[in-house]
Design a protein that fits this description.
A: 179 residues; alpha+beta; 17% strand; B: 95 residues; alpha/beta; Transcription Regulator spoIIAA; 31% helix
Amino acid sequence: MPTTQRVPLVFAEHRRRTGTIEVMRMLRHLELACRTREEVESIADVIAGLLPDPLVGRLGMVELLLNAIEHGNLEIGSALKCQLIREQRFEAELAARLSCDRYRARRARVWVDIEYPVVTIEISDEGRGFDWRRALASDFAAHDGPNGRGIALVSRTCFPTLTYRDPGNVAIVKLVWPR
Amino acid sequence: MIQVTDNHDIVTIHLTGRFDFRVIKDFQEVLGREPRTWVVDLSAVDYVDSSALGMLLLLRDRVRGDAQRVQLRGVHGQPREVLVMAKFDRLFKLE
């Protein structure tokens, strides 16, 4: 079974046996930080287990955290990412920036606040922000480059409440567990 | 995971599990080939992300937008939901 499903399903099983709802009633805050794409997946798996739909929640968390790292912390703009992908240099550039002095210490941070049944997630990065209003309003079909669909995907399929705090380096999501 | 079957006229890309940002490098390497028809087999894929959408658009560029030369097979579950949401059913034939 792919890891993607395995971890949320482990949480689902845990939920079934021990009643995550009871845990959720007691859990108040959770704070995590990550630097690399591998860490992004680990964090997304943990948080997905706290959300009503783990698979959808995982996708949303991965997309937002990758944005925070790639565009925020490592300052790879959308046009540059497009160019790097087309030239098959994106992975190398990512690795180079992760190890350079300017970016090495930067982290994406996730703050989860639970007031059951409401779960609020904030994802912040150390970048300069971006024109998030334009990104949220963008149409999937508006462009045909190999990147730039993450936010539209998240806001339409994962987290309809997705918004940002200016200047755009804090993403905010609010979810409500069904009663 | 990605596996490729190449019989010159048709290149079939078999993906398993996640079709996401981790597959970009391998997927792009496959795009260096020159078949008449491309088949992307998604029957064993249960999860796609925005990077997968980007990879499919690179494939579309590769055939200069000729939808007859690309087939997406076995599209189901979350991948189908995402592809339809992104209006990729207008760009590709989803089987």
